[in-house]
Design goal:
Distance between the termini: 37 Å
Number of domains: 1
Helix content: 25-40%
Oligomer: single chain
Largest sheet: 8 strands, mixed
Structural class: alpha/beta
Strand content: 15-25%
Order of helices and strands: HEHEHHEEEEHEHHEHEEHEHEEHEE
Number of helices: 11
Number of strands: 15
CATH class: Alpha Beta
CATH topology: Protocatechuate 4,5-dioxygenase, Chain B
């Protein structure tokens, strides 16, 4: 389903770009539209109904200081369910730097650079979400060596948009800086994270922003993509997809989140995460199928360097999968599923907050 979205949206993006070249500058308001209108909400009444259902199921509220950094899934709301509000409700800052996966980057020939957009707004359920002026400040410091601009890449990517309805549900006045992270080797992840951290600190100092209160960083990834059915011909059933194999997969997931992402984490943990997820002889190939294998380390490095090379403390707010979670009924509110969920085709979801 998402491949069909990709083809249609790519064609639309090319048409829009051609029109802009003919007419000159794009319009003053240039709204980035929603890619996935099946798995994610696009209207306020959908979010209100969805949150009522999640409230009835019950979800855990976090107390204490707000998150400075969060890791959030981006699969269908039906599958991820309560993990979305459980991690995102403790984002209290209005200025949000959103790092996402660049699923189609290889098809577009994009790698090794942070990918910014040039949209003025992104569609939200209640109103269009403004892109923060901080984006241009960050770009000015990064574009020579570390960043490019590609609206085409952003328009075919579904990861970042997944979080916006929940973030806007909790705060109608957010502004965002969306950044996608394509394939890059572990050393380049470190370099990009360090450069992004320096740029963010410069912007925060200029605007007198306090981390956690005035701005926060959220990175989105789904955890393992598991099984040997409906993965485009790929076999991700690393341990088999019977009950014993799926149990071993979940144990491996717990090992990754526990060792690499939770607790007081440092670059040693970030590199270990890459050793779990990337093949040692080819970083462009999966060793273990987390789609955020590039954006998660970049976000962790960024936060580490913003924090004066001191570790933040990560708290696992929850882990579930598309076959173990309590599915949220959404067919009656014009939402649904973009993929099956079976013992031979499932996705893991890890949600963590850092402070």
């Amino acid at each position: 389903m998402k491949n069909i979205f990709f083809i249609l949206v790519l064609l639309l993006s090319v048409i829009i770009r051609c029109k802009e070249r003919k007419t000159g500058e794009p319009s003053a308001t240039n709204v980035r539209k929603l890619v996935d209108t099946v798995g994610f909400a696009q209207y306020p009444w959908q979010m209100d109904s969805l949150m009522s259902r999640l409230d009835r199921k019950g979800w855990k509220r976090t107390t204490g200081l707000p998150w400075k950094l969060a890791i959030c899934p981006h699969d269908d709301y039906t599958y991820v369910g309560t993990l979305y509000p459980e991690v995102l409700h403790n984002i209290k800052a209005p200025n949000l730097i959103l790092l996402g996966v660049a699923h189609k980057a290889a098809q577009l020939g994009i790698e090794d650079s942070l990918v910014f957009d040039s949209y003025t707004h992104w569609k939200g359920p209640w109103k269009d979400v403004p892109v923060s002026p901080a984006r241009e400040e960050l770009l000015a410091m990064l574009k020579s060596k570390y960043a490019i601009v590609s609206d085409t890449m952003h328009q075919v990517e579904h990861s970042v948009e997944s979080m916006i309805p929940f973030l806007q549900y909790f705060n109608r006045d957010i502004s965002i800086v969306p950044i996608l992270v394509p394939a890059m080797d572990p050393d380049r992840m470190n370099e990009c994270g360090k450069a992004l951290a320096a740029a963010i600190r410069s912007v925060a100092d200029r605007h007198r922003w306090e981390w956690g209160k005035d701005y926060a960083i959220i990175v989105t990834t789904d955890a393992v993509h598991y099984g040997n059915e409906d993965w485009g011909g790929s076999d991700y059933a690393f341990f088999g997809c019977d009950s014993a194999g799926n149990r071993k997969a979940l144990e491996h997931e717990a090992e990754i989140t526990g060792i690499c992402l939770a607790g007081n984490i440092t670059p040693e943990n970030f590199r270990l995460f890459s050793s779990y997820t990337l093949k040692p002889d080819n970083y462009k190939e999966y060793k273990w199928t987390w789609c955020g294998r590039y954006c998660v380390p970049v976000a962790l490095y960024t936060s580490y360097y913003i924090n004066d090379s001191q570790p933040l403390t990560g708290e696992l707010t929850g882990y579930s999968t598309s076959i173990t979670s309590q599915h949220v009924q959404a067919d009656d509110i014009r939402m649904g599923r973009t993929a099956v969920a079976t013992n031979c085709h499932w996705v893991g979801y890890a949600a963590l907050g850092y402070r």
